[in-house]
């Protein structure tokens, strides 16, 4: 296998690193030629065109500001100096400026670095993919994608980001908090590249946008709904990996369930512990955890476990009268059709909206660094209504939502 250093040497034939470690663009042969102290330096001289009466007439016809760059300015002066028709000159310059602007925006290339599970997980990664797909269709950006593997070293995530940069991708979406350490290293070394870090503010900087959500708020509503729908007075929460982020889902869910029914029993199970992240991509572990909760009397189970959630759905499907609650995407639309009818609702994170907005900003020049927060107030998190299973309790859920938005109800973010 070719080492990362040898690979980068091959890819980097057209790129080089400055002493500060930043990756730069192509280095021309001239850039490598040393200049000695006694060597004369010859600079190109641009001739100055005198403004004759024809020049003045031409220039007077130009509705400034019309010039978008040096190339367009050169076109104007050259044409005016040659006695060209003023209107034709302005039209040509405007066309050149428009073309330059179009080429600048069209040059945005989007690289998606997925978390474990990647496209096809029917949940978290798929929500990010939907945002990128919409941007590709609406904005015409070029895209590519790469996926993390369970148990990979931190260096693999860093290498994934660097590979995208080496390939010329200028707007990179890092899906998941696990990319934060890599973004801390890669972003400062590549200031011309825009980064979106999902679900974390642990890495920041002038080129980093943090797409974050109030998961605890949406999960509060999920817990409230679960308790109201439970006939056994026992509900369950399955977390993929016991991290601070997933604990936000647990905290909100438990608080919401207790608010709806103070005596409800809430069972909790995490599939793996850090640094083992296969809990986000193991349907078998999800099914085992859900089977245990169903045996203990739970009849509504909420999962925040990425691709492992399909195992939760399989277990719930086999238990008559039981319900499952999906996460991140509207899983009554994305899960295997065989299990969609047992999905009560899903706690949807509008990750697709966050990713699309980041790409749009990168393309139109309105990029904003720092947190881009999505909560109940902004409809950044919500309960899905596919299947109309919540119709009988929707008035209560709407009232609770308004209390959270108003600040009357404070939702905890830690269990």
Structure, described:
It is a single chain. This protein is an alpha/beta fold and 415 residues long. Among the domains are: 53-102; 216-348 and 381-406, Response regulator (Rossmann fold). The chain is 42% helix and 17% strand. The protein is built from 14 helices and 12 strands. The protein has a 6-stranded parallel sheet with strand order 2-1-3-4-5-11, sandwiched between helices. Strand 8, helix 11 and strand 9 (323-328) form a beta-alpha-beta unit.
| Cα Rg | 28 Å
Number of helices: 14
| Structural class assignment | alpha/beta
> Which H/E pattern describes the elements?
HHHHEHEHEHEEHEHEHEHEHEHEEH
SS strand fraction: 15-25%
> What is the strand arrangement across the widest sheet?
2-1-3-4-5-11
Q: Calculate the mean pLDDT score and round it.
A: 83
What is the rounded distance between the termini?
A: 45 Å
Query: Which geometry do the CA atoms define?
Result: globular
The CATH topology of the domain at 216-348 and 381-406 turns out to be Rossmann fold
- Which class of the domain at 216-348 and 381-406 in CATH terms? Alpha Beta
- Could you estimate the helical fraction of the residues in percent? 40-55%
Assembly type of the shown chains? Answer: single chain
Strand elements, count:
12
Q: Can you tell me the CATH architecture of the domain at 216-348 and 381-406?
A: 3-Layer(aba) Sandwich
Contiguous uncertain segments of 5+ residues: 1-22, 24-84, 86-106
Write out the CATH superfamily name of the domain at 216-348 and 381-406.
Answer: Response regulator
């Amino acid at each position: 296998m070719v080492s990362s250093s040898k690979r980068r040497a091959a890819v980097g034939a057209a790129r080089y690193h400055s002493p500060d470690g930043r990756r730069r663009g192509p280095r021309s042969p001239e850039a490598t030629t040393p200049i000695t102290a006694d060597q004369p330096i010859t600079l190109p001289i641009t001739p100055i065109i005198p403004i004759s009466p024809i020049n003045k007439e031409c220039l007077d016809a130009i509705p400034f500001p019309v010039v978008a760059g040096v190339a367009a300015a050169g076109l104007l002066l050259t044409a005016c100096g040659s006695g060209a028709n003023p209107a034709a000159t302005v039209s040509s310059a405007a066309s050149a400026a428009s073309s330059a602007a179009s080429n600048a925006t069209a040059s945005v290339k989007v690289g998606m670095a997925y978390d474990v599970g990647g496209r096809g997980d029917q949940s978290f990664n798929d929500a990010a993919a939907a945002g990128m797909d919409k941007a590709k269709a609406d904005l015409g950006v070029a895209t590519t994608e790469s996926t993390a593997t369970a148990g990979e070293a931190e260096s693999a995530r860093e290498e994934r980001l660097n590979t995208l940069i080496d390939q010329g991708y200028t707007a990179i979406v890092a899906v998941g908090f696990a990319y934060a350490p890599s973004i801390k290293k890669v972003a400062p070394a590549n200031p011309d590249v825009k980064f979106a870090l999902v679900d974390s503010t642990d890495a920041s900087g002038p080129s980093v946008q943090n797409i974050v959500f109030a998961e605890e708020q949406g999960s509060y509503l999920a817990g409230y709904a679960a308790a109201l729908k439970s006939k056994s007075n026992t509900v369950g929460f399955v977390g993929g990996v016991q991290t601070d982020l997933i604990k936000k889902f647990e905290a909100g869910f438990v608080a919401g369930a207790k608010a709806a029914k103070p005596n409800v029993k809430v069972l909790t199970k995490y599939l793996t512990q850090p640094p083992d992240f296969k809990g986000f991509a193991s349907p078998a572990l999800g099914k085992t955890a859900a089977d245990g909760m169903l045996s203990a009397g739970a009849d509504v189970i909420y999962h925040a476990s990425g691709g492992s959630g399909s195992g939760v759905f399989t277990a719930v499907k086999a238990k008559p009268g039981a319900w499952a609650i999906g996460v991140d995407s509207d899983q009554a639309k994305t899960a295997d059709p065989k299990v969609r009818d047992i999905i009560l609702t899903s706690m949807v994170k509008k990750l697709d909206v966050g990713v699309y907005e980041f790409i749009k900003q990168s393309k139109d020049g309105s990029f904003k660094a720092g947190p881009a927060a999505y909560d109940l107030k902004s409809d950044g998190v919500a309960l899905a209504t596919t299947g109309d299973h919540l119709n009988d309790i929707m008035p209560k859920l709407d009232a609770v939502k308004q209390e959270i938005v108003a600040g009357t109800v404070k939702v905890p973010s830690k269990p």
